[in-house]
């Protein structure tokens, strides 16, 4: 069985640090009704039979990593009884269940753990290693699992995704055919030309970078209030731009103003679900598109945003070419240390789960939003776009940055965003990063009149 270029890169990352949870993708759901675990196991077997990567393991051979299929029945639901657990402890147990490292060579890259506090109160934790899943996939597998469960308990028929799921080997072969084709060669030339002479964006760190890369992380959140979200949508629409391009441009501006330099690269993970059979499949359908930040003293916030929009549109035309194949060379270092991506929560396969309780397979369910995927890079940003607004999840490497540094960076981003909405023609270099009250206080200190 075949592995994609992106999977091979993730396999190597796991091999270097097999005990890290940085690449664990987790979706935990609180269930408020009695769960029949025997039925849930049968639903789980049906799930992994449909989505083959969930029953794959990835051993090493002399020729490199390979993918081997396991029997669907070998993937077992783990039930952990946790009676008399308080809310905080239950949340922490769900987080730990998601963080447990995978033994991808021996037992695969997927697990399902039911933390049962009472007969009608439990948390189902579904966790995958990133090499078999992505953000959309994690929601697809939960949707399909509960659809199977509901059909077996008489609570409704399974959701029938349109068309067959593309076998993973076909996806890998399509990737390899594209890379070898004239279109693939043009895409490679485009990316090489765009990245030429540029290095990965780096923020000044609070501590020296360790000689060996680490994957220790934490999370900081930046939330936009309803009024700001409304202004962002309106400003973007008035200029034919997307809200994400606007956020991305101001994010690049925040990196520049925070010490990342005048020219740098960040990654924007994008979907590679181009064929109809991939849109309902669980798998690693991701390619990180290089996005350039270039700044001069005269550059305005709107110009940066417009550049981000152009790059995203053009980049998607070349998104089939795996970024891992770009020839950066060891002297340049990694292509990315910082990434920024969009997740449209209102379009995920389980509608409403982000906003509040829903029914899944006849069971009352709500999201248990546990921290995850922390420390993959210096900084990874996930912009969550919902019907009501936006929030940005900043996951950072704690061996490099303090929490206060990430909070300060979030404030810088927010100040640049607010200025861009008020006066988009403002030069990036002219935006004050200190509030007026704070500035007056500092000036008073300097004059000796405070």
UniProtKB/TrEMBL annotation:
SUPFAM superfamilies, alphabetized: CoA-dependent acyltransferases (SSF52777)
GO cellular component: cytoplasm
Molecular function GO labels: catalytic activity; phosphopantetheine binding
Domain of life: Bacteria
UniProt source species: Streptomyces spongiicola
PANTHER family per UniProt: FATTY ACID SYNTHASE, NONRIBOSOMAL PEPTIDE SYNTHETASE
Any one Gene Ontology BP term: secondary metabolite biosynthetic process
Name by which UniProt lists this protein: Peptide synthetase
Domain Condensation: 3-438
């Amino acid at each position: 069985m075949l592995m994609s270029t992106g999977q091979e890169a993730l396999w190597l990352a796991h091999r270097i640090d097999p005990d890290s949870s940085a690449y664990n993708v987790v979706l935990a759901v609180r269930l408020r009704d009695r769960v029949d675990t025997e039925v849930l196991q049968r639903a789980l077997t049906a799930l992994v039979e449909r989505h083959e990567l969930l029953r794959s393991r990835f051993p090493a051979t002399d020729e490199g990593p390979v993918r081997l299929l396991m029997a669907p029945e070998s993937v077992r639901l783990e039930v952990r009884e946790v009676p008399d657990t308080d809310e905080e402890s239950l949340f922490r147990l769900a987080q730990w269940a998601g963080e447990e490292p995978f033994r991808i060579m021996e037992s695969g890259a997927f697990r399902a753990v039911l933390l049962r506090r009472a007969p009608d109160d439990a948390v189902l934790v579904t966790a995958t290693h990133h090499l078999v899943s992505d953000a959309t996939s994690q929601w697809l597998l939960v949707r399909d699992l509960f659809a199977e469960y509901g059909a077996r308990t008489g609570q409704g028929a399974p959701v029938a995704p349109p068309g067959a799921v593309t076998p993973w080997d076909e996806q890998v072969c399509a990737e390899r055919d594209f890379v070898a084709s004239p279109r693939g060669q043009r895409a490679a030339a485009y990316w090489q030309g765009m990245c030429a002479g540029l290095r990965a964006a780096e923020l000044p760190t609070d501590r020296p970078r360790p000689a060996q890369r680490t994957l220790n992380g934490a999370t900081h959140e930046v939330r936009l209030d309803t009024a700001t979200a409304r202004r962002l949508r309106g400003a973007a629409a008035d200029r034919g731009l997307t809200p994400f391009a606007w956020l991305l441009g101001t994010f690049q501006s925040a990196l520049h103003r925070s010490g990342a330099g005048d020219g740098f690269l960040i990654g924007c993970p994008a979907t590679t679900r181009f064929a109809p059979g991939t849109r309902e499949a669980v798998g690693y359908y991701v390619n990180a598109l290089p996005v350039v930040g270039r700044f001069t003293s005269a550059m305005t916030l709107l110009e940066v945003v417009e550049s981000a929009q152009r790059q995203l549109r053009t980049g998607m035309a070349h998104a089939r070419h795996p970024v891992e194949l770009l020839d950066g060379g060891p002297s340049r270092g990694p292509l990315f240390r910082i990434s920024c991506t969009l997740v449209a929560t209102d379009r995920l396969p389980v509608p409403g789960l982000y906003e509040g309780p829903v029914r899944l397979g006849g069971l009352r369910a709500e999201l248990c939003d546990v921290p995850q995927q922390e420390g993959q890079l210096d900084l990874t940003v996930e912009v969550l776009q919902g019907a009501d607004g936006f929030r940005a999840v900043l996951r950072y490497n704690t061996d490099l940055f303090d929490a206060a540094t990430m909070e300060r960076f979030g404030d810088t981003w927010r100040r640049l965003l607010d200025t861009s909405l008020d006066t988009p023609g403002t030069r990036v270099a002219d935006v004050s990063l200190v509030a007026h009250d704070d500035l007056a206080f500092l000036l008073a200190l300097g004059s000796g009149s405070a």
